[in-house]
What we know:
38% strand; Pectin_lyase_fold/virulence
Amino acid sequence: MDDKTAHTIWLQKRHSLQLALALLLPQRLLAQQSPPPPAKGQLLKVGPRRALRTLAAAAKAAKDGDVLEVDAGDYPGDVAVWPQNHLRLKAVGGRVRMLAQGAAAQGKAIFVTLGRDIGIEGFDFSGAQVPDQNGAGIRLEAGSLSLRDCTFTDNENGVLTSNDGQLRLEIEDCEFGTIVRRNGKNHNLYVGAIAYLRVVGSYFHHGQSGHLLKSRAAVNHIFYNRLTDELGGRASYELEFPNGGLALVLGNVIQQSAGTENPHLIAFGTEGYGPGRHELHLVNNTLVDQRPSGGVYLRVKPGAAKVRLINNLWVGNPKIPASPEWEQAGNFLVDLDSFVLPMRDNYLLKPGARVRGRAVDPGEVDGLKLRPMQQFLYPRGTLKLTTQAINPGAFQFP
Length: 398
């Protein structure tokens, strides 16, 4: 065996090990890999009338395990790098509005996060633009990050991550709005080659030539979201996994606008598959095609180990996805009359819709049952289901 062959085998084994860790270890065990939290974290209060007046000052003062309560209001040009572990930033008294106004931490973003187990809640990030035209509201460079109830508007990218096989990103009840650069290289959410991405109850809209959500993560859980390009949107793909991976796409509304710059709604493996596991499970989604000449609901490059399309509703183009290698069940082509108020992007099924009660059992993946337990709640968030899901598509109630 020559050196080149040996090196290639080593790279493949390393990638497979990273994927195995992401798939097989429960989150509580993965958390144990992070540095242990300090015995006592401090509570730091941040605001214009506090000793720590800015987030930049707070980032220099904070230690591992601290909790930062940030007073509501505008924080113009206030950018920061966060290297701490087990850190919490929470808005109090209303929204914390982070306005870039030409500033960027490390020339990259409003916030750059480096620590493990960082949580941010109640922040609005807007206006991130940098000389290389790849600015972001948040740049996740290392460690792990969770975002809850945050918004990203008028940035070159909403959130952008590095390519780090140990990195984890979780997003809940967030909004990713208009992108300012329009050449197709910037995205509302762009996730690099990381271990794990989880997105729940979030709203993506008004892409501008780029994608609403693009992920190269080894494992992707995309649950109960709204990815709708809407009037004035010009997104390319609404959802793309360019290098495949394991993608569980459950309970989402995915809508392509009439102004789309790409006929496809979802793409998988378009840039090629590397070592690892490559499966797409598309379950209980409502996919809406408004392209005047007819779009394509799904594009999958040959080579994926498994493609499962279960309990989805196709709306618009009558040409539905088909391949003899795919598993399909419980999918239906429906028209706009099946929904409560589709002209206002409300895709709740009408009480008398013919497809009600016609869902099949979607099974499970690695012990995770794929029958919906929640549904997207407008404008962002989720609603817990109180009875078993029996309808195809993203919504069970009303």
